[in-house]
Amino acid sequence: MNFTFGVFKGISAVVLLGLLLFFSASKFVESTRGFLLELAAPAARALWSFDRVFGYGLSDKEIAGIVKENSRLRALEAEFEVAKEESERLRAALGLSLEKIEFRGAHVLKYSHDLGKEILLIDRGTEHGLKSGGIVYTEEGILVGRVNEVSGEVSKVSSSANPGETQEVEILPSGTKALAKGVGAGTLELGLIPSEASIRIGDIVVLLGNEGSRVPVSLFVGHVASISEGGGSAFKAAKASLFNRPGVTREVFVLLSP
């Protein structure tokens, strides 16, 4: 409705200004010209503002950039929702629980991606009981990473897929153990998998927890994306894609050391 009213005011301004030009010699207009100009001024200003916002405010290149970025963010959010739904179904099926553990909730203040590493800055630190190495996960039980820097009120979290991040995992449903190493871009290399192990693309990778240990609860990590046979060696390798997308993660939980 505001758009229609703005257009109407613009048209009215043009009509009034046209009448002024057409009857410029008229005594009536000379006596009322000030009144007509005053009446037309707000509409003319509205028309100028409308034209500036919708016609000249942004260049085609800037608009194209905004559209592209919005499309990218929508795609990431869609992937996150799919992973969230999948993890909820699996958690219910496997009976994994996040109860009876001590943790702290935190908000993500900033996301950064530098030198191949994805880092989250969260609003919890030593004043809230956090320590370096603390496991970070989402409400759905999906692994995010570990606390790698901590100060009084804030901490930095390194994604599990970052180069240098390593953890022992289990591949379900076969129960095969593997060593997961981050290689960046949301990907893990799974090593030390026995050549006879029965794993398939799509199998779920889980960080298994043990009560009383530093990881007291099992968390979902990702799914097997590719498999490389050993070619006669005792082990074969695989790659896994993380469920978590750090760029769209807004809230996390941090496990406190036992």
How would you describe this structure to a colleague?
The structure is a single chain. With 258 residues, the chain is of the alpha+beta class. It is built from three helices and twelve strands; from the N terminus they run H-H-H-E-E-E-E-E-E-E-E-E-E-E-E. The chain has a six-stranded antiparallel β-barrel. Strands 6-7-8-11-10-9 form a six-stranded antiparallel β-barrel. 26% of the residues are buried.
Shape: globular
Q: Helix proportion of residues, in percent?
A: 25-40%
CATH superfamily of the largest domain: Rod shape-determining protein MreC, domain 1
Through-space gap between termini:
60 Å
Q: Number of DSSP helices?
A: 3
Please give the number of β-strands: 12
Strand residue content: 25-35%
What are its keywords?
258 residues; alpha+beta; Thrombin, subunit H; 3 domains; six-stranded antiparallel barrel; six-stranded antiparallel β-barrel; 3 helices; 12 strands; 33% helix; globular
Structure in a nutshell:
By secondary structure, the protein is of the alpha+beta class. It has helices at 2-22, 27-56, 60-94; strands at 103-114, 117-122, 135-137, 143-150, 155-159, 166-172, 176-184, 187-194, 204-207, 219-228, 235-242, 251-255. The strands form 2 sheets. A 6-stranded antiparallel barrel has the order 1-2-5-4-3-12. The chain has a 6-stranded antiparallel barrel with strand order 6-7-8-11-10-9.
